[in-house]
Amino acid sequence: MSGSLPRFYRPERAVAADGSVSWVVVFDEDLGLHVEACAYLAGLRAAGRAFNTEKTYAGRIALYLSYCLGCGVDWSRPSLAQLMVMMRWLVDESMPARSRRPGAKARYRSEGTANAIMGTVVEFLSWCCLQGWVPPTLVNALSRPKYLRYLPAGFDAGEDGQNRTVMARTIKFRVAVPRYEWLSDEEIAVLLSLTRHARDAFLIQLLAETGMRIGEALGSAARTCTCCRTLGCWAAGTRGRTSTSGGA
């Protein structure tokens, strides 16, 4: 498939009568709902997935459905070869430039981004298989057994090593895992000296001591952190608050 992909399907925000907001996938011409995609997104909500996850998955599924329609592929019965062609298309096809100025450079997806999109597609097809909309032969071909020769730290291999064999995705780019980066003690001290509030200093100290990510520190259990500094020691507590609609 050459040229830009027509947007046959697109994600849309849907507001219910009670004011709740969800995401659906609609046909661009008549805004008709794609029943299977909307059912899958509803399943994500029922499973407690985050609002932003639902939004991201809606966009990826709409892209998959648009690709299938534009290439004449049955979305519910693609072959393994057709899915591999789509994976390659994701990185070879340019996306619109962020700027509308003349001469703006086109953007391209990375192989890691293509892996994330295809991961959502595989999850969508696997879920549809449970509903009887996708043949099991397709889903079985999307994963294969993989023996873990080197185990991650803390991984339980089982008494007889039975946990060493896992199911790995068949359609996936092999990308290098980015190495970890960290700040030195001197750099952390500089950050602490630049903070204007005890809360900010506490968060920096928390990240430095635990290795926690900032999103985990800010959104953990939908609570806010209060802290104080006494004689150079940190004391932290939590107090509950009303959760936002996005669960952040």
Describe the protein.
It is a single chain. The longest helix has 21 residues, at 51-71. The strands form four sheets. The protein has a two-stranded antiparallel sheet with strand order 1-2. A two-stranded antiparallel ribbon has the order 3-4. Strands 5-6 form a two-stranded antiparallel sheet. Mean pLDDT is 81; it is low at 221-248. By secondary structure, the chain is an alpha+beta fold. Helix 1 (35-46) runs antiparallel to helix 2, helix 2 (51-71) crosses helix 4 (111-130) and helix 3 (80-92) packs antiparallel against helix 4 (111-130). Helices cover 41% and strands 18% of the residues.
Which strand-content bin applies to the residues? Answer: 15-25%
What is the arithmetic mean of pLDDT? 81
- Secondary structure: number of strands: 8
H/E element order: EEHHHEEHHEEHHHEE
Termini distance? 40 Å
**Main β sheet profile:** 2 strands, antiparallel
Strand order of the largest sheet: 1-2
- Poorly predicted regions: 221-248
Q: What is the helix fraction of residues, given as a range? A: 40-55%
Number of helices: 8
State the secondary-structure class: alpha+beta
* Molecular shape: globular
Instruction: Give Rg in angstroms.
Output: 23 Å
What is this structure's SSE topology?
Layout: E1 9-15, E2 21-27, H1 35-46, H2 51-71, H3 80-92, E3 94-95, E4 107-108, H4 111-130, H5 136-141, E5 143-147, E6 165-169, H6 185-194, H7 198-210, H8 214-219, E7 223-230, E8 233-240
Antiparallel strand pairs: 1-2, 3-4, 5-6, 7-8
